[in-house]
Amino acid sequence: MPELPEVEALAHHLREHAVGRTVHRVDVASLQVLKTFNPPWTALHGREVTGASRHGKHLDLDCSGLHLVIHLARAGWLRWADTMSAPPPKQGRGPLALRVHLGPPGQGPGFDLTEAGTKKGLAAWIVESPSEVPGVARLGPDVLSLSRSSLEELLAGRTERLKTALTDQSLMAGVGNAYSDEIMHTARLSPYATAGKLDADALDRLHSAMHSVLTDAVARSVGQDAARLKGEKRSGLRVHARTGLPCPVCGDTVREVSFADKAFQYCPTCQTNGKPLADRRLSRLLK
Question: CA 103 to CA 151: how far, in whole Å?
Fold first, then answer.
């Protein structure tokens, strides 16, 4: 799933390549992706792109005051091309969901919104204000805007596990499954630590790790072609999606805890005093 660094890099790419261009045509290949119907997608036609920004993990393309807000979900992506195919795509076929022409079709650049797999979560809204998008309206403060004292205030009294708190977009916006694993590993904190019971030293490490992990990832990602961002993300990960490989810090084996539809990774030596965490899926299989 694209998280803060990748979405920030996509926004930067659009600021560099889309701002100042005119939306000539929008092709909808999957009506499911559009979550608003008024204004219609044709209202974007003829509008100049005046800005591109990020709200948590939502991408926002400002078209002269009308906003195309995009949430890429788990398997969605934005694919830029210097020349877009002119014929409108057929609906309901393949991964293509939405195509935006930023020049005469067949002659100018633009981008596709695509989604792999059968479980569809990619979503787009056409609104006059990003706050009209429910997911944006519910966002907590952006994680990179948090000071050490603000982080302490946010977590005070929280009873959920740290992994859950870091990925709760209504608490703090921008971090998902992958970077929460990286942040906790860098901070040497257990995913099962109670968020509201971290002592001052743990909070110091957590705040420092949040900023260092994310700013480093943004620095690596911004300026990359959209097609290279996924590979750049994977190359920078130390524990996430590295189950069974050695931890680059201590050499211990990276472990995994699996749930119904996702998993997280951690290093026992760095994060849990050498103790493996219970994997509920494995425990059920052994019963």
Answer: 44
Domain identity same for 211 and 99:
no
The single-letter DSSP state of residue 48 is B
Q: What is the per-residue pLDDT across 117-172, written as a single tens digit (0 to 9) for each?
A: 878 899 999 999 999 999 999 999 999 999 999 999 999 999 999 999 999 999 99
What is the domain extent for residue 86? 4-137
Backbone phi and psi for residue 86, each to the nearest 5 degrees, phi listed first: -75, -45
pLDDT value at 116 more than 60: yes
Kindly state the average pLDDT of the residues 78-105.
Answer: 92
Smallest CA-to-CA distance from 21 within 64, 60, 58 is with 64
Is residue 202 scored above 70 in pLDDT? yes
Same domain, 161 and 90: no
- How far apart, in Å, are the Cα atoms of 274 and each of 114, 195, 277, 281? 41, 20, 9, 21
pTM exceeds 0.90: yes
CB 67 within 8 A of CB 179: no
Q: Are the C-beta atoms of 203 and 151 separated by less than 8 Å?
A: yes
Asked if residue 281 has pLDDT above 60, the reply is no
Question: 29: which DSSP letter?
Answer: S
Same domain flag for 125 and 171: no
Per-position b or e across 8-44, b if 16+ CB within 10 A of its CB: bbbbbbbeebbeebbbbbbbbbbeebbeeeeeebeeb
